[in-house]
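pasting for the record
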Amino acid sequence: MKKLPEKLTELLSEVKLTQANSTWDCHGTPVILHKALEKIASKKGITFDDMKVIESSVKEKYAVISVRGHYKEATEESIGEASPYNNKNAYPFAMAEKRAKDRVILKLLELSGDVYSQDEADEFNLAQALRDLEPDMRRKIERWRKGFKFCDSQIAMDENIEQWKRWSKEHVRDSDIIQYVEEVYDQRKMELGI
């Protein structure tokens, strides 16, 4: 990874984090974890106004949220969006909020453009990872993902996740793809109340 901006290194140090435990490289640009941005925002006293939902649909699983934040004399605003085309988890409102807040924090700290937030990077990392798969492997991944949606008991969930873990350990090298499938498993467990 190229060297972190000096300002980011200082901010991480203030909240007792390091480059190694809170960032990674995405094609030469640093990516920072959401939780690290939240710690920095809290330490620096960044505040947020109430969020505004611009557009949303629970049924169609999309949300567009506007967030305004304040730091010292500066005020910044940004949009966070999550929908099936850029978000594979079942929580579009939470993801839209994270994306909007992360963008505002980066703007307020004058790091926007030099650093990505985790939640922005996740969407293009996953899209690229899925595109890079051979068509046959992509179909197998989708079968696994859809399979969890049809589990109807604790036993079925436990058996399927164990099979998935054994299979993915041997065949899947990309952690974004593993997370993509396992988020469906987590969602189904919640739906079943287990």
